């Protein structure tokens, strides 16, 4: 697998993120689930671990995990901007996320990119269950 371009910088903090710009990037790249800028920022800020990829000030990739810090974590929002795909950026995002989750059972749900995750050692599991409490993204 290729290595990410050296121009891509990976950060485990959110200090450099321009949330309005990231939301617009996600919309333009068709990987937007309807969060407002505030909801997008809060979902990352409330996650125990985040990894962000930048080219200059532009965020071109992200991954985040909810975790109890002991035995269970849940990964979501794994994204590489289309122009930067297939050069190892997604793998690097996941490696930097997973190294912060030693000893933990890491879950994720996806309809896409199954092979991407399998290459990192993820195994398929039987169907789970889910429930949306009220209307999705409506917390008030
Ligand atoms: C999935 C995604 C994050 C991968 O990012 P990336 O930067 O292209 O990943 P990498 O370059 O590290 O790819 C690593 C390997 O996985 C493969 N791969 C990448 N995306 C894949 C996909 N969608 N389906 C199957 N395999 C994929 C690559 O071909 C590569 O294989 P190789 O090692 O044999 O060359 C990116 O395609 C993306 O953002 N997709 C849209 C959002 C999405 O589906 N996210 C995942 C579900 S939450």
How would you portray this structure in words?
- With 140 residues, this protein is an alpha+beta fold.
- The chain is 24% helix and 24% strand.
- A 5-stranded mixed beta sheet has the order 1-2-3-4-5, sandwiched between helices.
- Helix 1 (19-28) crosses helix 2.
- The longest helix has 10 residues, at 19-28.
- It is globular and about 40 Å long.
- The model has no long low-confidence stretch (mean pLDDT 95).
- Coenzyme A (COA) binds next to strand 4, helix 3 and helix 4.
Strand-pairing-aware structural class: alpha+beta
The percent range for strand residues is 15-25%
In total, how many beta strands? Answer: 5
Helix content: 10-25%
End-to-end span in angstroms? 45 Å
Mean pLDDT: 95
Rg, please?
A: 15 Å
> Which small-molecule ligands are present, each listed once?
coenzyme A
* Structure annotation, total helices: 4
Low-confidence segments:
none
Note the run of SSEs as H and E: EHHEEEHEH
**Given the C-alpha coordinates, what overall shape results?**
globular
Q: Characterize the main sheet.
A: 5 strands, mixed
What strand order characterises the main sheet? 1-2-3-4-5
Describe the secondary-structure layout.
Blueprint: E1 8-11, H1 19-28, H2 37-45, E2 49-55, E3 58-67, E4 72-80, H3 89-98, E5 105-107, H4 114-118
Parallel strand pairs: 4-5
Antiparallel strand pairs: 1-2, 2-3, 3-4
The protein binds coenzyme A.
């Amino acid at each position: 697998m290729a290595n990410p371009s050296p121009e891509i910088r990976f950060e485990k903090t959110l200090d450099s993120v321009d949330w309005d710009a990231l939301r617009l990037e996600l919309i333009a790249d068709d990987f937007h689930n309807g969060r407002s800028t505030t909801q997008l920022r809060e979902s990352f800020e409330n996650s125990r671990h985040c990894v962000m990829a930048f080219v200059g000030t532009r965020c071109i990739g992200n991954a985040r995990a909810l975790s109890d810090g002991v035995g269970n974590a849940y990964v979501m929002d794994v994204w590489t901007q289309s122009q930067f795909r297939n050069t190892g950026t997604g793998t690097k995002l996941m490696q930097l996320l997973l190294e912060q989750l030693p000893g933990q059972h890491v879950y994720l749900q996806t309809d896409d990119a199954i092979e991407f995750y399998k290459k990192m050692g993820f195994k398929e599991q039987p169907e789970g269950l889910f429930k949306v409490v009220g209307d999705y993204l409506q917390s008030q």
